[in-house]
Specification:
This protein has about 550 residues and is of the alpha/beta class. The protein contains 24 helices and 14 strands. It has a 5-stranded parallel β-sheet, sandwiched between helices. The longest helix has 18 residues.
Length: about 550
């Protein structure tokens, strides 16, 4: 069976698969004529979550249009995951009890390439019906400056040359938005759905610097700048759904079903893709209620459309307390201890104790309850159901990717809250598990596992810079405070100067413990995390 529109008409061939329950051709025609939702970013999270939400709306008859998808980073995905399959996708949900749900998703009606399909994109942006543009371009996609705060070359060139010859993603996006402004059409909501703190702020910032430069150079008027930045909105969102790389076991199961071409592939840019996407069942999405031209009725599918402060609190709860810090801890320590599955790490007493105490004892006291999600219940779901799910093949190697960009939002806010706390019990100098994770990251950057063997670090554009800041230590080196100070005092990487808030010395000491030699990582974890078992969360 080939995943095509013609093939799925033969329902008997796709027994066991949930098929679209609407007229695909009618939806595509309606979307082409009057698009309401455009999305940038063709990766796994989009296919597993927003695209499925759109399918739910279509199935319920709450809308008659789907999503137009565009990618501007890895356009090979458009050819291999979308156009090769008539824009259909297989969404495979993996439950912790072993149940697997397989669904063919047809809500994506067109797939575009930013480099080739500019004319069609302009048509979409100048359609009066367009309500929102969403993004899953990953956290690093919002980077417009390097570590020295210089604008990246393509971005800077677009700032100086204006909207007609853009090469950068944000230059092209701003140009498309400008075409809508000049057509006199209603403003849009530009909604980042990326898993990072202040995602809407990052998106607005990238657009503001670009269009501000255009105004200063005379390419656009002050009114046009105002329309692009003040009338268009940049809502905050909090999104949560674990979507690992395609699982080989799923590929085999689909192949056994008779599905053709299920084997995962790696693009030239390093993206791992397949005609299917596998993910967990739990998911959360909150979006700030700031839609100047309306929005699809997403709240009918469980999306929480709410106030900005509630989204901020929910995002902070997840990013700095109940999940993302634990992701980092399991990522870096899992790589050094030889694990390849997060679920396997949840059988490791010391690692379970580390993430439980990190979250419950040190991060949770600083969390603000958003009111719409219970932080305790969320944390218990992560520890008790999501991480231990053996059928969700998430890996520490994936979660350790781009750690240099994640440390500050995941730990810096909590550390700063401790620094500002007036309560004697809340002193940064008393912290144990957050400093241990930070020291673990430094030990990870040595590039040698706990057996003393070299291992491949996960992709991260700042690895060499960070290593140079810490003096490129080797396994067994004793590093004085002065050697590690340039890194640990760097606010770009940690969000704070670790020495100013009182944890720098602790991180130095713990790093030297972890770096003594082979097996020092395990010995150090036993020292700090081994005395009490976290029985409640260990699954044998």
């Amino acid at each position: 069976m080939k995943l095509t529109k013609e093939s799925i008409k033969h329902n008997a061939s796709w027994k066991g698969y949930r098929l679209p329950q609407y007229d695909i051709d009618a939806v595509r025609e309606a979307t082409h004529k009057a698009p309401t939702w455009l999305h940038f970013g063709a990766g796994n999270l989009f296919r597993a979550f927003p695209a499925v939400l759109a399918q739910r709306l279509l199935t319920a008859g709450l809308t008659d249009t789907g999503i137009i998808c565009c990618d501007g980073y890895d356009e090979e995905l458009i050819d291999r995951c979308y156009r090769a399959c008539d824009h259909l996708s297989l969404s495979v949900t993996l439950y912790s009890n072993g149940t697997i749900n397989k669904e063919i998703v047809a809500s994506v009606t067109e797939s575009l390439k930013l480099s080739e399909d500019g004319a069609r994109l302009k048509e979409v942006f100048t359609a009066p019906s367009l309500q929102m543009v969403t993004f899953t371009i990953t956290e690093k996609g919002y980077a417009i400056q390097n570590d020295a705060h210089d604008f990246l070359p393509d971005y800077k060139a677009d700032m100086e040359s204006g909207p007609d010859t853009c090469r950068s993603f944000f230059g092209k996006l701003a140009s498309l938005c400008l075409s809508r402004v000049r057509a006199g059409l209603a403003p849009l909501a530009l909604v980042s759905l990326d898993n990072c703190s202040d995602n809407g702020v990052r998106l607005e910032r990238a657009m503001r610097y670009m269009t501000q430069a255009w105004m200063q150079h005379g390419f656009i008027t002050e009114d046009e700048y105002f329309a692009l930045i003040k009338k268009n909105t940049y809502p905050l969102s909090m999104i949560d759904k674990i979507t690992p790389h395609p699982d080989e076991r799923i590929a085999k199961a689909l192949t056994d079903d008779g599905v053709e071409g299920a084997q995962p592939f790696v693009t030239e840019k390093g993206s791992v893709g397949a005609i299917y996407v596998n993910s967990e069942n739990p998911h959360y999405l909150l979006i700030e209620n700031a839609f100047p031209n309306g929005h699809p009725p997403l709240e009918q599918c469980g999306v929480i459309i709410t106030r900005r402060d509630i989204v901020e609190k929910s995002a902070q709860m997840k990013v700095a307390t109940c999940m993302n810090p634990m992701d980092t801890a399991l990522g870096i320590f899992g790589c050094m201890l030889g694990y390849t599955q997060v679920s396997a790490e949840m059988k490791d007493k010391e690692l379970v104790n580390l993430i439980t105490r990190l979250s419950e004892n040190e991060a949770m006291p600083m969390v603000a309850d958003p009111g719409v999600i219970d932080p305790e219940a969320f944390l218990h779901e992560v520890l008790g159901e999501r991480y231990p799910n053996p059928f969700l093949q998430d890996s520490p190697q994936r979660t350790a990717t781009d750690t240099s960009r994640k440390i500050a939002p995941r730990f810096g806010t909590t550390l700063y809250a401790y620094y500002n706390s007036m309560l004697p019990a809340h002193r940064a100098t008393k912290l144990v598990y957050i400093p241990l994770v930070l020291a673990g990251w430094l030990r990870y950057l040595v590039g040698v596992d706990d057996r003393g063997d070299a291992f491949e670090l996960s992709p991260d554009p700042n690895i060499e810079h960070v290593r140079s800041l810490m003096g490129n230590p080797k396994l067994g080196d004793e590093c004085p405070e002065a050697q590690l100070y340039p890194l640990l005092a760097n606010r770009y990487y940690f969000g704070v100067n670790l020495f100013e808030i009182g944890v720098g010395e602790t991180v130095v000491r713990m790093f030297n413990e972890l770096n003594r030699g082979p097996r020092a990582i395990r010995e150090t974890l036993k020292k700090y995390c081994g005395e009490e078992k976290a029985e409640e969360w260990i699954f044998d």
